Amino acid sequence: MQSTGKIFWASFLTLIAAGMGFAIRSDVLAEWGADFGFTQTDLGKITGGGLTGMAFTIIGFSLFADRIGYKPILIGAFLLHVASAALTLAATPVYEAYGQDATFYCLYIGMFMFSLANGMCEAAINPLVATLYPKQKTHYLNILHAGWPGGLILGGLLAYCFVGPNCVVFRMPWEAPMLFFLVPTAWYGFIVIKEKFPISEARAAGVKFGEMLAEFAAPVLLFLLVLHAMVGYVELGTDSWIANLMGGYIKNGVLLLVYTAGLMFVLRFFAGPIVERINPLGLLFCSAVLGCIGLFWMGTMLGNATVWMILIPATVYGVGKTFLWPTMLGVVGERFPKGGALAMGAMGGIGMLSAGVLGGPGIGYTQDFNTSQRLEELSPSAYKQVASPEENQFLFFPPVHGLDNAKVAELTPKSPVYEEVKQAETYGKKQALKITAAVPACMAIGYLILLIYFRAIGGYKLVEIGPGGEERETSHEPNAAETIYEDSRADQA
Fold this sequence. Notes:
Layout (H helix, E strand, L loop, with lengths): L3 H33 L3 H23 L2 H4 L1 H20 L1 H8 L1 H33 L4 H8 L2 H16 L19 H13 L6 H5 L3 H6 L4 H28 L7 H17 L1 H6 L2 H22 L5 H16 L1 H12 L4 H39 L1 H7 L18 H6 L7 H19 L1 H19 L5 E4 L5 E4 L5 H13 L1
Antiparallel strand pairs: 1-2
Helix pairs in contact: 1-2, 1-6, 1-8, 1-9, 1-12, 2-6, 2-12, 2-18, 4-6, 4-9, 5-6, 6-7, 6-18, 7-17, 8-13, 12-13, 12-17, 12-18, 12-21, 12-22, 13-16, 15-16, 15-17, 15-21, 15-22, 17-18, 18-19, 18-21
């Protein structure tokens, strides 16, 4: 006999663990740069490794999640989470024995393994929750994905207390805080091993793999995949950098991540019923507009405003990004139910792939390019003093020698080049935020196109699968009796 509540809690804990590791890593980046001499592009690649692997496992395991079941996937994720922690801990001894390049790959592979584990979790928990609550998918997917900002809050507060020179309790070696995510990991691992899991919704309905695959011929689904790639870039890519971008302007930049995560947690947890009763595409359009305004506004104010003034655009950005990820999953679940785990996995996978391959490295490169260009204009001698000997490149953009963070960390306010370097760094971070704001602007245009399309065909409606596999559009919402019935049925399954 399965316990719906315990299985949902285990699913929630997987996102708590992922969010904690993500938040603490974002605050540890500066220490890695200072300890190991990495550039911003190097750090962006490591951050990208913490997201890229997730894409492959989400898509890969979604292909056969219906066949092998959710439990084996989550057990594998638990083992990978533990292994990633062990490899990350090895970074300092590897640096002492083998130098910077070996350390880079040690951290990159450790973060890559962490993202593989997160991807396995994502491949299982989205269709799992849809199976547990088939009449309230969007509602419970929003509650489920409140676990991510919940983990960001816990990880951010722990980093605030124990990471870096500005910590408020006492400074721990970065290795210790990086292990905090193992607490929720052990908790979800225990539940997964103990509990009995249901079969997938698609398998119970008799949907064949070919029918799932056929859903990808729909132009609207392909368009949603493109939009979700942008969601991954702007949400996870920016969040990977936010503590680093705000460092030096807010006493502890990770607090801004905690604040925006707090907004996401509250709104996702309590706004599920609202999301189900309004047009989700309209909500996505408004969210993208707010995200664009918030990011550009933060870029304009960075370095020129007080902490309280920065909170205003940060609030706009935080509200804007809140519903993007779970609502996109909800749209796919509502419009393409035959896609099952495969369609949801493709969405999550493309979002993570974009965040890891484009978001993390792209924002890092943007900082390096603009910072280096500005410092070379201000003081060629200062640039020569702190420039990295290694050349970095992103996609087809021109190569650049970013600043060596180990050299920058050695500068004091009395250093002749200190002011020029700090001024150039501020410019680079401001430009990174402004340029990133173009992504949600493009998303808003895409959602507007979808709004116009659905209005032309009679409005946005849910698609349900009938007993014989036929599809029908409906505006049906479950009443209280149906909800109680579905919950009791899941508990007895």
